[in-house]
Design goal:
The protein has helices at 10-26, 35-49; strands at 54-64, 67-79, 86-89. By secondary structure, the protein is of the alpha+beta class. A hairpin with a 6-residue loop joins strand 2 and strand 3 (86-89). The longest helix has 17 residues, at 10-26. Mean pLDDT is 80; it is low at 1-5.
C-alpha cells in the first residue's frame, strides 16, 4: 500500500514528460560507465534538484566485458503532499550498449 498521496497536476505531468524527452534528445546513447552516461546522470541531478528535490548519487565500480567501469545510482526524495511524508523515486536511466 502506498503511504503517501501522489498529487500530480497536469502541469507536473507535462513537465515530467518534457524532461524525459529532453534527456532522450540530449543524452542518447547514455551507456552505463561512459562519459555520456555521466553527463546524463549530472543532467538528471540538476534537473530534479531544480524542482526542490533531494538527489543523491552513489558511485561504484563494476567489472564489465569492456573492463572496469564507474557506475552510479541516483535516488531522489521529494515532497508528495505537505500533510504526508516524503516519496522516494528510483529509476534506471542508462542505456545498453549496441
Amino acid at each position: 500500500m502506498l503511504s503517501a498521496s501522489l498529487l500530480f497536476t497536469e502541469g507536473d505531468a507535462d513537465f515530467a514528460y518534457g524532461c524525459a524527452g529532453e534527456m532522450v534528445k540530449r543524452h542518447t546513447p547514455r551507456d552505463a560507465g561512459t562519459l555520456r552516461g555521466r553527463l546524463a546522470c549530472n543532467w538528471l541531478m540538476d534537473t530534479i534538484a531544480s524542482q526542490g528535490a533531494d538527489v543523491r548519487r552513489e558511485r561504484f565500480r563494476v567489472d564489465t566485458p569492456k573492463g572496469e567501469r564507474e557506475m552510479a545510482n541516483l535516488s531522489c526524495s521529494c515532497r508528495t503532499n505537505p500533510e504526508d511524508g516524503w516519496g522516494v523515486l528510483l529509476s534506471h536511466y542508462d542505456t545498453k550498449p549496441g
